Amino acid sequence: MNRLVIEGGTPISGEICVQGAKNAVLPILAATVLAESECVIKNCPRLRDVDKTDLVLEGLGCCVRRDGNTVTVNPTGLCGCSISEDLMREMRSSIIFLGAIVSRCSKAVVSMPGGCPIGQRPIDLHLKALRELGVEIVEEHGYIYCTAPEIRGADIHLDFPSVEVTENIMLAAVRGNGTTTIINAAREPEIVDLGKFLNAMGARISGAGGSVIRIDGVEHLHGTEFTIMPDRIVAATYLAASAITGGEMCLKSVRPRDMSAMLKVLRDMGIELKVGNGEIIQRVSGPLRNIHIVRTMPYPGFPTDIQSPFMALASLARGTSVFVETIFENRFQHVDELVRMGADIKVEGRSAVVRGVERLQGANVVARELRGGAALVVAALAAEGITVITGTEYIDRGYENIEKYLLACNAKIAREP
Ligand code: UD1
Asked: What angle in degrees, to the nearest 10, is found between the helix axes of 163-173 and 22-31?
């Protein structure tokens, strides 16, 4: 257990080369179990969730090597079809292994997944979709037992465009018999990355990034080399950190087109943005304006993952901003901590009303989930005095060495045991 100690008030200015995307690398690492030879994954961020995913792969019999930000997975020794309960409890996204393992081994055993406590997070849509592909599923004593002598292509209409359900179907169907069509698929850029990776392995997937994805099953998938896309949520978090402190930021290795909903909100707040090829330059020249109303939505809408860091930003804007969280029912856990720092925020059901205040003050606060933790870092950078953030293990799930990046941009931040 360690904590981040931040002395606020210094403008966060400089250049950041954005890390690879957590939500792209996790399903791509799961996909490596489908290969019949070695996969080399570049731009793999050093994250707690990636380390856990490596452990899942090793538990299945894959050989995993890391050299800097390159992870090599050799799945030829694959011999297991189950994931330990400890690892399933630690990470929600371990559920995306289900489709890949059942496709490769014709059976899979996992327990109910855990992860950040941001809502109920059921897995009913995962199981329903796999059943439609011919997987027999028995749920017993908190475990899920899957068997599928063959995966049969099917038309699957999703009730909600869930990110990981879309990925699970892609992973299960890619080596299946016949054609699978996902209707009302999630359109997140990370799904496009997974589609590209699978196609580089020999898959036949079209339409990823749109609402209808077609997967023509193939018999064999081979290893490949692939570079993970940049993390759009981490990129936007660093923009928020710079904007709240009145700094100037240049982000490199970003894809602004994946970030349009977030960039629009920043512009609405009066923040100047210059967007180039793989680059965003941000300047703040006047006071921050309120956001009016922001609703979290599936992509290309405003991402739920950036709701809390942007709420920290809005807490120092002029006027009142309203955030409506439509994706996860328990994603306002950062609010009490921001209030402890002097923010004026009232939550009613799924809405949070943020009245901008003149200043925030340093305090002892607790990160209770990944993005909420990032919001506390953003607020602390602008607060008067010292903020001590515990629960940093949540932040480490998604932000590679957050203090290192911020230190390079003049932050007064230290990690203490
Ligand atoms: C992914 C992201 C997460 C992001 C979220 C929404 C990864 C590893 N994680 O999570 O960072 O916040 O998308 O953009 O990519 N649902 C069900 N039943 C299911 C599955 C989901 O009811 O079987 C509900 C969830 O409770 C939630 C909604 O669907 O209300 C959206 O969840 P989903 O898109 O599945 O999020 P994740 O894929 O878990």
From this structure: 20
